[in-house]
Design a protein that fits this description.
- Helix 3 packs across helix 4 and helix 4 packs antiparallel against helix 5.
- Strands 1-2-4-3 form a 4-stranded mixed β-sheet. Strands 5-6-8-7 form a 4-stranded mixed β-sheet, covered by helices on one side.
- It is globular, with a radius of gyration of 20 Å.
- The longest helix has 27 residues.
- 37% of the residues lie in helices and 26% in strands.
- Strand 1 and strand 2 form a beta hairpin.
- It has 6 helices and 11 strands.
């Protein structure tokens, strides 16, 4: 569901439970969930959202800031970037004869080959590298954990989201943030498992989290890594 207020729009899920009051939760993904007693009118839900609008927007902005990163990068030798959970320095090579600007990971460095020593071209080469790596890693992870599910993803895509690490829609289409290539492999596995579990449970109810925990018992450690390190995962 969506709600627009003061020029801003948010998406949220509503879960009706045997309880006496309405509550709002936001997870480390930036997902907003309203838990309400059965029979609660929609107007009451929307009113609660508006009463907590400032806090919700603040939390969503914090999530966006973690994804974007607070510091500007310098695209010169010695600057470092995350890759699979570790930090590596970059080394830039200018070569007008190469077919396309690209990045190769070797000798514990990110070797960046560009036709022109230009900040934007270096940045784009890095982004392409992470896109490609993320796609390969996610594909491998989906294959590794598919045996836990009766259904299969219809497709998956790598995107440039500013607010989420991954999504799953009702058509079983999965998306993943290219920045995940900066995370450890087990954290990438967690995000893949999280989204694949949404193929079974589209919301974040107890059944959903039980399924996540059954497949990856220490998933909270992976969530914490993303919470603490998400702001560093940027180019």
């Amino acid at each position: 569901m969506i709600h627009t207020y003061l020029g801003e729009t948010i998406r949220f899920e509503i879960k009706y439970k045997n309880r006496t009051s309405i509550g709002i939760t936001l997870d480390s993904y930036g997902n907003v969930e309203v838990q309400a007693p059965k029979g609660t009118p929609d107007d009451s839900v929307h009113q609660l959202l508006e009463e907590n609008w400032e806090l919700i927007q603040q939390k969503l902005k914090e999530m966006k800031a973690r994804l974007q990163g607070p510091q500007k990068k310098v695209y010169e030798y010695g600057e470092s970037f995350l890759y699979l959970g570790n930090t590596y320095p970059i080394q830039i090579f200018q070569d007008i004869n190469i077919m396309q600007d690209h990045v190769v990971f070797k000798e514990e460095k990110l070797h960046i080959y560009v036709k022109q020593h230009d900040t934007e071209k270096i940045k784009q080469a890095l982004k392409r590298f992470y896109y490609q790596q993320c796609k390969a890693l996610v594909e491998k992870s989906i294959s590794a954990y598919q045996s836990n599910f009766k259904t299969k993803p219809r497709l998956f895509r790598i995107t440039d989201s500013k607010t989420t690490w991954g999504t799953c829609d009702s058509k079983l289409q999965l998306t993943f943030n290219w920045r995940l290539a900066m995370a450890p492999r087990e954290v990438i596995d967690y995000v893949v498992i999280h989204e694949m579990c949404h193929m079974v449970h589209l919301n974040h109810d107890r059944s959903f989290w039980r399924l996540v925990g059954k497949i990856m018992p220490d998933y909270k450690e992976k969530e914490n890594w993303l919470t603490l390190s998400g702001r560093k995962m940027t180019v």
